[in-house]
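As a representative case, we now present a protein record of this kind.
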Amino acid sequence: MREARHPVPDEASEAAAREILASVQGLGPDDLVLALISGGGSSVLSLPAPGLTLADKQATNRALLASGLDIRTMNAVRRRLSGIKGGKLAAAAAPARIVTLTISDIPGDDPAAIASGPTLADSYAAMDLSDAIARLEGRVPPAVIERLRRAEPPPVVARAEVRMIATPGMALQAAAAVARDAGLEIEILGDDLEGESANVGAEQAALALAGRDRPTVILSGGETTVTIGGGKAGRGGRNTEFLLALGRALDGAPGVWGLAGDTDGEDGASGGGAGALLAPDTLHRARALGLDVAVSLANHDSGGFFDAIGDLVVTGPTRTNVNDFRAILVTPQA
């Protein structure tokens, strides 16, 4: 076992990547490589491409986390800057057979996108990264921008198989089964929702306020984003920001509760929380403590907001990751 850092890689990430790459050298056609891949692999398996340094990769990861780019584009950027991702590990293991067992944290469950696909063919090699370059230029080293502008043919990957063993959809179905046993109606919006966290929160508030005849739970998964501008950035993550925006839009509506969290147990920079809970009295309790929802949202301090009122959900590391989980309970009011 080799431990490394997430979401920004460290020296251990590079050392682990080099060790893993070296371990598959010189294999033959009768050898089997069993790869266990899950979310977070982009950071903990981090080998800079030729001409780049670990510092270049670290600066890029930090910039990506604040860029507002979707996860597919982020992973396309990471592949182009990597010496092991995008099928390069599989190419190094040839002609051995590779079987990948994967836990998906990617909207749509594209196996080549999970951990940036070190063992699978790179279907994003020719992806247009002009938007990413525009957002990152001036915030990352020039060598990174030069590398991003240079698309290269993907490595040849043969004898590669993949099997999904856990996915966001499985998590939603498991939650739906629990809710159904409790006598609730189920609405599943999808396991691949994307968009700005605050916007998604406002949209789902409108759904919750549309009215229900029976108690209903609205479930969704996926991975929203938070774009941090030039202002103050507090303690927050995409799930706590979603939930705070949901609360602002609901404005204390009776009979509506919410839960949002990252299934790996850590929601961004929310302060050690996996996510948070929202209740009809959340805003009332916050105001009593002098908290302002609009200010907390503007400062991306949603984690600090929920922590202050005791509604941050702290699970610790779950040792797995099937992306974000969101549930809104709506109970009809007489």
In short: DSSP finds 13 helices and nine strands in the chain. The longest strand covers residues 97-103. The two ends are 57 Å apart (CA to CA). The longest helix spans residues 168-181.
